[in-house]
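Subject: complex prediction, re-run

Hi both,

The earlier run crashed halfway through, so I resubmitted it with identical inputs.
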Amino acid sequence: MPLTMLSVGKEAKIDYCRANDKTKKYLEDLGLIPGAIVSIVSELGGNLILSVKDSRIALSKGVASQLIVES
Amino acid sequence: MVFNDERGIEMSYTFALVGNPNSGKTTMFNEITGNTQYVGNWPGVTVEKKEGKARRFKDDISIIDLPGIYSLSPYTMEEIIARDYIVDEKPDVIINIVDASNIERNLYLTTQLIELGIPVVVALNMIDVVNLRHDKIDIEKLEEGFGVSVLVASASKGLGVTEVVEKALELAKSATVKKSELSHRIFDNEVEDSLKKVKELVNMLANKSGYSARWLALKLLEEDIKLKEKLDVSEVMMSDIKKLGQELENKYDNDIETIIADNRYRFISGVIAKAVSRKSKGNTLTMSDKIDKVVTNRILAIPIFLLVMLSIFQVSFGSIGSYTIDWLDVFINKTISGFLTSLLEAGGAADWLKALIIDGILAGMGSMLVFVPQIMIVFFFLSLLEDSGYMARAAFVMDRVLRKLGLSGKSFIPMLMGFGCSVPAVMAARTLENEKDRRLTIILTPFMSCGARLPVYALFAAAFFAKNQGVVIFSIYILGILIAVLSGIFLKRFILKGEVAPFVMELPPYRIPTLKGLSIHMLDRGKGFVKKAGTVIFAASVIIWFLQTFSFTFQMVENPADSIMGGVGRLISFVFAPLGFNDWRASVALLTGVVAKEVVVSTLGILSGVGEISEGSAELAIALQTYFTPLKAYAFMAFTLLYMPCVAAFGAIKREMNSWKWTLFTVGYQTGTAWLVAFLIYQVGKVMGLG
Ligand SMILES: Nc1nc2c(ncn2[C@@H]2O[C@H](COP(=O)(O)OP(=O)(O)OP(=O)(O)O)[C@@H](O)[C@H]2O)c(=O)[nH]1
Ligand SMILES: [Mg+2]
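This time it finished cleanly. Structure:
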């Protein structure tokens, strides 16, 4: 399911990313690679604050919906 | 590395600070060099390369501070600057600043740096945060895993800094560069095999370009387009490399970049499992998370944001801010002016000299200096937002709003900085990855009223809206924001069309701003304005005084209207006639205001002959009332807000746009908008009977 469907506080594993190459690469550099465990800290109108390892990444709704996770 | 002449003992070295954004590179840089470069708690503070000399070392050591990068595949403009420096200029040693409190992600860059063939020292910064969490990091295990020296440090507390430089020096001096011995290989056998094949293909190219063959092979395997273009790699070679990449992609059923990134992260996990023992459990909410749950809450986010902004305005432009102005006004225009007048009289100075000093220089500089404390208050609050980490949250909260205008949340940061000074603000737009977003942000940022424009509003508000000064000044700031909003919509719709880049931004943990950090920011900026008053404004005041004292035939004139300045003013004043302020003095002031916006005030001060009677701005206010009405004054303030920014900002825009066409479009658009808005204010106001 897309990351946008994950509820706040629940953990999930990134399965794959549907964003364009450039964004995908950037997300991977930030630690958002397939297999990474993420959870949502906060949600605001579809925009998310994501927790991955020790960092917090803010994502707009558009990108968040391109990250597919499995819980 | 340069050998120093005869003695050959002292040498010069270059060490570059490289690391993730917000890992503390600039803090470290300042500690090592004694500089005061800008530090802030959000990613992307440093957007250009800075150089400084290490103190306390016999050798000549240049330290290079660079923008932060997450990897050697740059995403945004400032990241390109950093990567190009590292791979092209080849510093003697890379000091890799790693944020120890976010170690796994930070080491991702380290896995790439050790492939470059440049000696690397890892500085595990922010070790204080790790200690507070009671986590333990085994340095030896890390060194073993990565095959490089690792030292702990806390740049903001000044701990371990010298040791890091000493270690780098030791590395630089040991003639043989020891190749880093990893405890095990970063990549799987399959990837290594392909890599070996690519390496054979690119060996020649590597020799020619001076890059390490392994690194070049990896980059080309990842299809780094910029590098491919730069080295002009032949299509034949590229397709061979692609074929090898495809084989890997088929084997892993994933694309090559992901395979390589995954390999790196796996390697790091392996090392971390041995080297780091955590007290804290994985999925617990940190203090920052708890704050974020409130600050970015669905219902509370916008009210909190507005409350923060309004309080800043209230304190800066309300009672506290104006108190400092009144106090300084009396000090400069009564005490100093009186003192200087009697001094000059006692010394028997010539009349013209007295006029130049009191009417020219003091009137010009003084009318601007009174605002320095208030400008510093604005900077104090901006620093508070920046250092606490709220700035990045505000960008997140505003993303949805800005997206409607065709911008992303990232544009918020340059715009907010615009309330301080347009020059760094325009440069801060480098963090926007998309060219069109960046251009649009640069065009809109100067609409955020910078500190230098404040003296103009304050002067006019005091002269014409004495009862509602705060409200009037506030409305000008809002006008700027409103015009930026409308311009955003307009320009996005018709000129800078296209998709807005997605918003992806790391949020730093909240930190308690330090008094040291805040006062450095405040004093630095305050000093900047005083320096400007002492140089640019000083010179401008002298020139303006001269031009309004002499006629075209260099005769001293009785009435300034007959002077050179008067002539120029009358020549251009027709442009401003439809806006209501066609008095030659107003026209001239706007013209000279391009030098620096405060000069609008200095010019009006000089042209009104204030200073003589040492009653300062009260006197100037009375003079202004002879050629402005409240409506005209408001239109004038609006024009000052919106028209082209000062020459310094113009220079920054030119550099950042990197195109004359766009630069001229920007200032043309701004000035045109200013004219139109002032026109509407004046004409509509007149119809409504406010004139
Ligand atoms: N607790 C703690 N905070 C630190 C330390 N070093 C830096 N900081 C803080 O971390 C934040 C970022 O510092 P900077 O020096 O601006 O980071 P940078 O790496 O230059 O960031 P960019 O220029 O954006 O790449 C600031 O708020 C610093 O005060 C440290 O050792 N411990
Ligand atoms: Mg920096």
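Residues 302 and 397 of chain B are 7 Å apart (CA to CA).

- K.
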